[in-house]
Predict the 3D structure of the following.
Amino acid sequence: MISGHGGQLALAALKAAGVQEMFTLSGGHVFPLYDAAHQEGFPLYDVRHEQTAVFAAEAVAKLQRRPGVAVLTAGPGVTNGISGLTSAFFNAAPVLVLGGRAPQFRWGSGSLQEMDHLPIVSSITKHASTVFGTDEIPAQLAKALSASLSGHRGPSFVDFPLEIIFGSGEAEAVAPSVLSAEPDPADVEKAAQLIAAAQKPVIIAGSDVYGGRAEEALRAMAEALTVPVFANGMGRGVMGGGHPLAFAKTRGLALSQADLVVVIGTALDFRLGFGDFGAAQVVHIVDDPSQRATHASVAVSPAGELRAILSGLAGYNGGRVDRTEWVATLRAAEVKAAEKHAAEMAVSADVIKPANVYGELRKVLASDAVTIGDGGDFVSYAGRYLEPQQPGTWLDPGPYGCLGTGMGYAMGSRVTYPDRQICVLMGDGAAGFSLMDVESLVRQNLPVVIVVGNNGIWGLEKHPMQAMYGYDVAADLQPGLRYDEVVKAMGGAGETVSDASQLSAAFTRAFESGVPYLVNVLTDPTDAYPRSANLA
C-alpha cells in the first residue's frame, strides 16, 4: 500500500510498469510528479518544447520496448505535445502522456489553461481519461498502460485535475496487464502453405517485428522457408548484418517479380503501394485484428502475437519449392546495386551530394550506433545508403512523417544507451523545429552528433513543385545558414563543411567531442531524391 500525494501514487504505478524516467517541460499543474521524482531520485529530463518531451518518450518506448512517459502541464502543454502523441500512435509506441488539468471544483469558471483535453487526444490514443479521485491514480495508470502495451501497441493519455494530483490518498501500486490476440491456427496454416508453394516469395518486415520482440522468430521463419527479407522502419536490422536472406537495395526488382508478398508487422500504406503488388498474392501478418487491411486484396491475414505466428510458420512441415535460384538472382542484383551505391557515395564532385555525406559517415559509424532520421530528402537518402547492422538501431518519423522528432529522439536514445554513438541526420528544414533543444542536451550532459544536410531549400517540396508547375513557392530557406554556430552558442560545438574531402575528419571530431556537436554540411540544392511513393 502506498500513501502520499497524487504524484507519489502516480510514480509508484509508473515504477511498477518498469518506467525508469520522465520527460517534461516544467509546469505548475504537475508539480507533485516532480516532487515525487525528486524525493526518490527518479530521473527527470526537461526540455524547451513539449513536443520534444513526447518524442523523447517515444524513442525510449521504441528502443526499449516498454512504456516511455512524458509529463505535460495543462492546456498549451498538452496541445504542444499533440504531434508527438500522433507520431506514437502511427508508430505503435507505448507512450504514456500525463497531463495537468485545471481544478474540477472550479470547472467552468475560467481557471488558468482550463480546457478539456480528452476530445483532442481521443482519436490519437488507445486510452484517454481523467482521474477524479486521488486514490484511483494507480489503478487508472495501470489501465492506461495496459492499453498501451496490449494488442497493437500505442499511446495513452491521463490527466489529473489540480486538486487530485495535489491531494493525498492511499492505494496499491498496480502493474499493467498485457494482452495479445491468439492467432487463428487455420490462418497460420494457410499462410504457411502459400509461402511454401510460392516460386518467388518476398518478405517485408516492419516496425512491429521489433516492437513485438519477434526478430529471432522472423529469422527462424525466413530460414525455414527460404524467403528473402526486406525491411522498413524499425524492421531495419532485424535480420542482422550479413544474413544471406537479408536484402535492402533490390526491393523494386523483387516486388516486380514476386508471386507472393508477405508483409509482416507494418501497414499496407503509401510506403507499400497500398498493398497492390500487381499479380502477386499478399499475405498480411499483423499483431492484432484491428490492423488488418480493409482496402487491399489479401489472401490471408493471420493476426495476433507475432512470435506465435512466425514460429507456427517456421514449424510448417509440408512440402516446399526450392528457391535457391530466386535467392541467388536477388543476391546478384543486390551486389550490383551495392556497387552502384558505392560509386554514388564516392567523393568526386566539386559540390557535396547527400550520397557523399553517407558514404563518409558509414566509415565512422559503429555497428551498434543509433541513427535517427529527421527530415525529408536528406533522410530519404539515409534510408538508401545506411544499412543498420543490428535490430533497434534505426529511428525515423514513420508513416506520419512528422518533422521535429530529432532532438527528442536523440535525448531518448542517449538516455537508453549512455555509451553508444547517437547520430541525428537532419535536414535544414527540420532543424527549424527542434534545434533549440540542443540546450537541453548540453545542460543535462547528453552528447549526440547532429549531421545537418544544408541545401537551403525544402527539397521534398521544391523539386516536385517544379516538376508539377514549372515554378515553386514557399520552398526556399536562407542558404548557408550556420546551424553549427547556433549549437556553439548553446554550449555545444560544431563546424561547417563545404568540401567533401573534409567530411570524414569532421565526423570523427564530432564523435570524439563528448558534447552535442553539429556538422553543418552544405549540400547541392539541385540534387533531388528519386521518389516513387505517392501521397495518395
